[in-house]
Amino acid sequence: MPHHENPVVHHENPAVEPDERPERKRFTPRRGIPVVTTNDLPGRKIEQVVGMCYGTAVRSRNIFGNMLGDLRATFGGGQQGYVKMINQTRDEAIEALRAHAMSMGANAIVAMRFDSGEFDSGNAQSMNEVAAYGTAVIVSDA
Fold it and tell me: What would the mean pLDDT of 112-129 be, rounded to a whole number?
Protein backbone atom coordinates (compact mmCIF):
# COMPACT_ATOMS: atom_id res chain seq x y z
CA MET A 1 0.00 0.00 0.00
CA PRO A 2 1.54 3.36 -0.98
CA HIS A 3 2.44 5.83 1.73
CA HIS A 4 0.71 9.19 1.42
CA GLU A 5 1.91 12.42 2.95
CA ASN A 6 -0.40 13.87 5.57
CA PRO A 7 -1.90 17.17 4.48
CA VAL A 8 -0.82 20.39 6.12
CA VAL A 9 -3.81 22.50 7.06
CA HIS A 10 -3.34 26.25 6.70
CA HIS A 11 -6.20 28.60 7.44
CA GLU A 12 -4.24 31.63 6.33
CA ASN A 13 -4.01 33.30 2.94
CA PRO A 14 -2.53 30.66 0.59
CA ALA A 15 -1.08 33.39 -1.63
CA VAL A 16 1.48 34.17 1.08
CA GLU A 17 4.64 32.11 0.70
CA PRO A 18 5.23 29.64 3.59
CA ASP A 19 8.47 31.34 4.68
CA GLU A 20 6.62 34.69 4.86
CA ARG A 21 3.99 33.39 7.30
CA PRO A 22 4.47 34.59 10.86
CA GLU A 23 6.09 31.98 13.10
CA ARG A 24 3.56 30.48 15.50
CA LYS A 25 4.43 29.09 18.88
CA ARG A 26 3.74 25.36 19.03
CA PHE A 27 1.31 24.49 21.78
CA THR A 28 2.92 22.35 24.51
CA PRO A 29 0.46 20.76 26.95
CA ARG A 30 1.45 20.46 30.60
CA ARG A 31 -0.24 17.11 31.30
CA GLY A 32 -0.88 14.67 28.52
CA ILE A 33 -2.35 16.07 25.36
CA PRO A 34 -5.84 17.49 24.88
CA VAL A 35 -8.46 15.10 23.51
CA VAL A 36 -11.69 16.63 22.20
CA THR A 37 -14.72 15.31 20.34
CA THR A 38 -14.98 18.48 18.25
CA ASN A 39 -13.21 19.05 14.94
CA ASP A 40 -11.17 21.95 16.29
CA LEU A 41 -9.57 23.00 19.54
CA PRO A 42 -10.77 26.41 20.77
CA GLY A 43 -7.90 28.87 21.19
CA ARG A 44 -5.56 26.75 19.07
CA LYS A 45 -4.82 26.59 15.34
CA ILE A 46 -4.42 23.25 13.59
CA GLU A 47 -1.10 23.47 11.77
CA GLN A 48 -0.86 19.88 10.55
CA VAL A 49 -2.97 16.74 10.45
CA VAL A 50 -0.67 13.90 11.49
CA GLY A 51 -3.13 11.05 10.93
CA MET A 52 -5.55 8.66 12.57
CA CYS A 53 -4.70 7.46 16.05
CA TYR A 54 -6.31 4.91 18.32
CA GLY A 55 -6.15 3.26 21.70
CA THR A 56 -7.72 -0.02 22.75
CA ALA A 57 -8.33 -1.49 26.18
CA VAL A 58 -9.90 -4.76 27.34
CA ARG A 59 -10.94 -5.52 30.90
CA SER A 60 -12.88 -8.19 32.72
CA ARG A 61 -14.39 -8.63 36.13
CA ASN A 62 -13.28 -11.49 38.30
CA ILE A 63 -15.48 -14.59 38.64
CA PHE A 64 -17.08 -13.29 41.85
CA GLY A 65 -17.90 -9.95 40.26
CA ASN A 66 -19.51 -11.74 37.34
CA MET A 67 -21.58 -13.96 39.66
CA LEU A 68 -22.73 -10.94 41.68
CA GLY A 69 -23.58 -9.11 38.45
CA ASP A 70 -25.58 -12.12 37.23
CA LEU A 71 -27.46 -12.24 40.53
CA ARG A 72 -28.26 -8.51 40.34
CA ALA A 73 -29.39 -8.91 36.74
CA THR A 74 -31.74 -11.70 37.78
CA PHE A 75 -33.43 -9.66 40.52
CA GLY A 76 -32.96 -6.21 39.00
CA GLY A 77 -30.93 -3.31 40.31
CA GLY A 78 -27.90 -1.23 39.48
CA GLN A 79 -24.78 -2.75 38.01
CA GLN A 80 -22.18 -0.52 39.67
CA GLY A 81 -19.42 -3.10 39.26
CA TYR A 82 -19.90 -3.14 35.50
CA VAL A 83 -20.21 0.65 35.34
CA LYS A 84 -16.88 0.96 37.17
CA MET A 85 -15.26 -1.56 34.82
CA ILE A 86 -16.54 0.24 31.70
CA ASN A 87 -15.34 3.64 32.99
CA GLN A 88 -11.90 2.21 33.79
CA THR A 89 -11.72 0.60 30.35
CA ARG A 90 -12.60 3.92 28.66
CA ASP A 91 -9.94 5.74 30.71
CA GLU A 92 -7.33 3.15 29.68
CA ALA A 93 -8.35 3.45 26.02
CA ILE A 94 -7.99 7.26 26.16
CA GLU A 95 -4.53 6.97 27.72
CA ALA A 96 -3.50 4.48 25.00
CA LEU A 97 -4.92 6.93 22.41
CA ARG A 98 -2.82 9.75 23.86
CA ALA A 99 0.31 7.58 23.86
CA HIS A 100 -0.24 6.61 20.21
CA ALA A 101 -0.78 10.25 19.13
CA MET A 102 2.32 11.40 21.03
CA SER A 103 4.39 8.63 19.41
CA MET A 104 3.29 10.10 16.05
CA GLY A 105 4.53 13.57 17.07
CA ALA A 106 1.08 15.08 17.66
CA ASN A 107 0.26 17.47 20.48
CA ALA A 108 -3.56 17.19 20.36
CA ILE A 109 -6.36 14.87 19.25
CA VAL A 110 -9.56 16.09 17.61
CA ALA A 111 -12.74 14.28 16.52
CA MET A 112 -12.33 11.57 19.20
CA ARG A 113 -14.93 8.79 19.27
CA PHE A 114 -15.49 5.55 21.18
CA ASP A 115 -16.49 2.11 20.00
CA SER A 116 -17.16 -0.61 22.54
CA GLY A 117 -18.28 -4.18 22.79
CA GLU A 118 -18.50 -7.12 25.10
CA PHE A 119 -17.52 -10.70 24.48
CA ASP A 120 -17.29 -13.95 26.41
CA SER A 121 -13.75 -15.25 26.73
CA GLY A 122 -14.97 -18.61 27.94
CA ASN A 123 -15.81 -20.02 31.38
CA ALA A 124 -18.55 -17.37 31.69
CA GLN A 125 -15.87 -14.65 31.80
CA SER A 126 -17.31 -11.45 30.32
CA MET A 127 -14.80 -9.07 28.72
CA ASN A 128 -15.36 -5.39 27.92
CA GLU A 129 -13.47 -3.89 24.98
CA VAL A 130 -13.27 -0.15 24.23
CA ALA A 131 -11.54 1.49 21.28
CA ALA A 132 -10.95 5.25 21.34
CA TYR A 133 -9.97 6.81 18.02
CA GLY A 134 -9.51 10.25 16.56
CA THR A 135 -7.32 12.51 14.46
CA ALA A 136 -3.82 13.31 15.70
CA VAL A 137 -2.90 16.93 14.96
CA ILE A 138 -0.22 19.49 15.63
CA VAL A 139 -1.66 22.71 16.99
CA SER A 140 -0.19 26.08 17.86
CA ASP A 141 -1.39 28.95 19.98
CA ALA A 142 -3.94 30.94 17.98
Answer: 83
